[in-house]
């Protein structure tokens, strides 16, 4: 459904309240998969009488928490929600009915729900009950907060983020392969926050052999809870992997090794003994990996791999967003590795031009954030 036809989206007060919804929604970042991040604020006579957000799949939706907090004050109030209220019986009953029952007068919606079970029907139901509905408030920000959810709903695949750190001269390691550390603490803390909000981190066998990474997070959203580690995923055709690696420490975080065929029964048995799950896919490519992780209902994955795999992931449409950290240092080296391997381009005009680019200063380093252009087929 088109948002523009009745979008009243430049009222600064509405925008401010919607930003508050997004702030609430993001408290649960990394915990709601496969569900979206949603925040809700209920306001009456210029006073906030209830707030809520969706904490976790299976738990009540944002609107329910906000309505509970508002109690009788919801009558005649305005409800702000960052995502269209649902109109279906899923894990929980429809929020549209809850809003109607509570007697709210107005609902301000950030974005239409792309989920075909809901899309437009929640808004329709509210209007049919005589509630005034205003849509498209801070829509771009609402879309961005739920970009992974939206992508998975539309393409049945997780949203792929390629993250790398390189020197000012475009190297991710020295010629000898040494890479710790390229960026400083502030940028590294940023990566830990990112891992805490992604469902999986992917590397290739080469990275395990060369860097022995942990791929865990030190970031704690809640001081009383353990860090929210992502699923660690290794792609390896040969299963020729080191016998000891931090990734096999599965009491800290789960690890899956994805392979193709049955190349190495002994290697597989050894990994399984360590608690690593080994999965044989018919064909091992970034796209088949994304399809597999999509079936597991993951929303977002972080490619933290080397240049060969990152080029393949870009080429087969498994990367939607790029996060490139750039450290102001020069390491040199004709053969020192760079973040993206061969894409088969000959002319500079073929280069992939990132869209919606934003530049951030992160401590002493820089972070460039942007989206890859969608392939013509999407
Ligand atoms: C949420 N939280 O605050 C809102 C959602 O499986 P269910 O019953 O929890 O329904 C999930 C769907 O509900 C989700 O895909 C989205 O379309 C809609 N709205 N979901 O998890 C919320 N408002
Ligand atoms: Zn709902």
From TrEMBL:
Annotated binding of substrate, by residue: 179, 195, 215, 304
Reaction equations catalysed: 2,5-diamino-6-hydroxy-4-(5-phosphoribosylamino)-pyrimidine + H2O + H(+) = 5-amino-6-(5-phospho-D-ribosylamino)uracil + NH4(+); 5-amino-6-(5-phospho-D-ribitylamino)uracil + NADP(+) = 5-amino-6-(5-phospho-D-ribosylamino)uracil + NADPH + H(+)
Cofactor: Zn(2+)
Domain of life per record: Bacteria
Listed GO biological process terms: riboflavin biosynthetic process
Keyword Membrane: no
Cofactor note: Binds 1 zinc ion.
Disordered as annotated region, ranges: 209-229
InterPro entries: APOBEC/CMP_deaminase_Zn-bd (IPR016192), CMP_dCMP_dom (IPR002125), Cytidine_deaminase-like (IPR016193), DHFR-like_dom_sf (IPR024072), Eubact_RibD (IPR004794), RibD_C (IPR011549), RibDG_C (IPR002734), Riboflavin_Biosynth_HTPR (IPR050765)
Positions that bind Zn(2+): 61, 86, 95
Keywords: Hydrolase, Metal-binding, Multifunctional enzyme, NADP, Oxidoreductase, Riboflavin biosynthesis, Zinc
GO molecular function list: 5-amino-6-(5-phosphoribosylamino)uracil reductase activity; diaminohydroxyphosphoribosylaminopyrimidine deaminase activity; NADP binding; zinc ion binding
Function: Converts 2,5-diamino-6-(ribosylamino)-4(3h)-pyrimidinone 5'-phosphate into 5-amino-6-(ribosylamino)-2,4(1h,3h)-pyrimidinedione 5'-phosphate.
Name the UniProt record assigns to this protein: Riboflavin biosynthesis protein RibD
Taxonomic lineage of the native organism: Bacteria, Bacillati, Cyanobacteriota, Cyanophyceae, Acaryochloridales
């Amino acid at each position: 459904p088109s948002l523009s036809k009745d979008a009243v989206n430049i009222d600064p007060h509405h925008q401010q309240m919607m930003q508050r919804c997004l702030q609430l929604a993001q408290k649960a970042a990394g915990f709601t998969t496969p569900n979206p991040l949603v925040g809700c604020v209920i306001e009456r006579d210029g006073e906030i009488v209830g707030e809520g957000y969706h904490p976790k799949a299976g738990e009540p939706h944002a609107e329910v928490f906000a309505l509970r907090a508002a109690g009788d004050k919801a009558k005649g109030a305005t409800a702000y929600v960052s995502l269209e209220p649902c109109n279906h019986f899923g894990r929980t009953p429809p929020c549209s009915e809850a809003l109607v029952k509570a007697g709210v007068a107005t609902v301000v919606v950030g974005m239409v729900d792309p989920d075909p079970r809901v899309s437009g029907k929640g808004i329709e139901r509210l209007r049919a009950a005589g509630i005034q509905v205003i849509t498209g408030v801070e829509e771009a920000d609402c879309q961005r907060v739920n970009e992974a959810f939206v992508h998975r709903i539309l393409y049945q695949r997780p949203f792929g983020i390629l993250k790398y750190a390189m020197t000012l001269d475009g190297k991710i390691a020295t010629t000898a392969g040494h890479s710790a550390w390229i960026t400083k603490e502030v940028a590294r803390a940023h990566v830990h926050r990112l891992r805490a909000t992604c469902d999986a981190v992917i590397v290739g066998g080469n990275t395990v052999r060369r860097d022995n990474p942990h791929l865990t997070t030190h970031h704690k959203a809640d001081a009383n809870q353990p860090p929210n580690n992502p699923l660690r995923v290794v792609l390896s055709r040969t299963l020729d992997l080191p016998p000891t690696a931090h990734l096999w420490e599965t009491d800290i975080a789960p690890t899956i090794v994805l392979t193709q065929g049955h190349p190495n029964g002994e290697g597989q048995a050894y990994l399984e003994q360590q608690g690593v799950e080994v999965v044989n896919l018919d064909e091992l490519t970034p796209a088949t990996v994304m399809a597999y992780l999509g079936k597991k209902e993951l929303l977002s994955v972080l490619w933290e791999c080397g240049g060969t795999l990152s080029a393949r992931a870009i080429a087969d449409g498994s990367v939607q967003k790029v996060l490139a950290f750039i450290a102001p240092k020069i390491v040199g080296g004709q053969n020192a590795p760079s973040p993206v391997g061969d894409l088969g381009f000959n002319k500079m005009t073929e280069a992939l031009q990132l869209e919606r680019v934003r530049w951030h200063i992160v401590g002493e380093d820089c972070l460039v954030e942007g989206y890859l252009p969608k392939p013509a087929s999407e």
